[in-house]
Amino acid sequence: MKFKHEFHWALYLTLASAVWLLIANFSGLHSDWIEIHLLTGDLWFVPALPVIWMSVKKLRDGENEGLLSFWQGVQSGTLVVVMALPLILILHVIYYYTLGDMYFDLAIVLSVDRGMDPTEAQMYFNLPVQLIRKTFSIVAAGFILSMFVSMFLKKQDDDDEM
Length: 162
Fold this sequence. Notes:
By secondary structure, this protein is an all-alpha fold. It has one domain (about 5-155). It has seven helices and no strands. The two termini are about 35 Å apart.
């Protein structure tokens, strides 16, 4: 399997995302503290950063025999995120139909209380829109995190640096 390394770490990223989602749920960020969640909801990079870091480091130290170019790290880290994305989206669908079934109703009520038009709030806070937002934000954050990680983990052969 050509992308075995990335798929392996995509599973870890999915697991980290599940833990993050459960923490948000059980800490009340999707219910009692929803006003805070609207500000901090896209902090998915908190669990993603260590997973991407370990993935790129393992690639450098394992398959690449201690060498890693900046773009190899970016490509590998981004691929981990892209491979994890369908699993993360499925995870969100399951979550919003089970544990988080009140999230959208609460977010709509809070947004309307803060002055948002009710129709606009209903159009913004629903599962399809949430999944689209998650898709773009996860891929963008994954790419940026992969660039950040690769800046620190790149290691090239001395002959290549001249």
